[in-house]
Amino acid sequence: MTEGASAVDAGTNGAPPHFGPGSNGPVLLRRLELTVRRRLDGLLQGDHLGLVPGSGSEAGDSRSYHPGDDVRRMDWPVTARTQVPHVRETIADRELETWVVLDLSASLDFGTANCEKRDLAIAGLAAVSHLTVRGGNRLGAIVTTGERVDRYPAAPGRLAADRLLRQVVATPRAGSGRRGDLAAALDSLRRPPRRRGLVVVVSDFLGDADWERPLRGLSPRHELLAIEVVDPRELELADVGLLTVVDPESGQTLEVPTGNAEVRRRFAEGAAAQRREVAAALRRAGAGHLRLQTDRDWLTDVVGYVAHRRRAGNGGASR
Q: When comparing pLDDT for 153 and 245, which is higher?
């Protein structure tokens, strides 16, 4: 895909630019930034964080409990005094530190719809950057590919965030090998402990769920958001006859008779079960869950998620 085609695609079908080999990364990042800014700027008002509105460590006023409120914020003294359930609101921190754990394993170099999952993961990072870097907020990242781990210290300002994005885009694609170690990357945020803030995990969450325990260990100190990146062919198989598939992380090949309806059914059931387990593990860890798919307008999904979180933070019921 050429740079010109990427720019057109990004504007016509909701797909992010394609950051493939030979593409002009800075130009495509600029186009992505303009798209994100145009779609998201009207959504955010005030000083609080768009992804986790009203969150912070400073206690605020109490208000009546609404279905969907976080029970960890129950204000028990006021509840006992009034005999009406109340929750304690918190005031958004003036300076937020956000850490993004970005999975760029070989399994993300795959896409059968409008883009590759890798492009969608980078777009998710760009959206998080735009939503959090303001007012002295700091952004850092840990990028794991299975072949290397790159750490970018948290730094304030738009220029630092743009530099981070350029460095992430330039990350070499991983060859066949083991998967990026999400568990180790998450654990590195606990030792040494980081200042309270937001931790965002961007991954397709394929493979073992050994990331759940370290993610749960971050929840007492940080707000958590998981961005799950999915391609439709990972959810169900198309009937295309005998299909040879290659595991990008092991190099193993497998011939799949997609013309067999029973094979397609079993694959869809297994994929659905795996995704349900990922969602359940994220809930157990206390993480927000945003799914981005290569066949959908990803920014529409981001806008919907942020709007939902804002309603929940302002006392609306959670879905």
A: 153
Burial of 208 (0-12, 13-18, 19+ CB in 10 A): exposed
Measured CA to CA, the distance from residue 32 to residue 40 in angstroms comes to: 12
C-alpha closest to that of 76 among 91, 90, 65: 65
The whole-model pTM stands at 0.79
The residues, any chain, with a CB within 8 Å of residue 99's CB and separated by 6 or more, are 139, 140, 141, 142, 154, 189, 194, 197, 198, 199, 200
Q: Does residue 130 or residue 254 have the better pLDDT?
A: 130
41, two tokens? 């700027």
Closest CA to 131 of 317, 299, 12: 299
Average pLDDT in the 16-24 region?
Answer: 87
Q: How far apart are CA 105 and CA 113, in angstroms?
A: 19
Residues near 67 by beta carbon (within 8 Å), at least 6 away in sequence = 317, 318
CA atoms within 13 A on the CB side of 62: 16
Distance of CA 23 to the CA centre of its chain: 24
Residue 140 pairs in a beta bridge with 99
Instruction: Report which residue type is found at 122.
Output: I
Q: What is the largest CA-CA distance in the chain?
A: 69
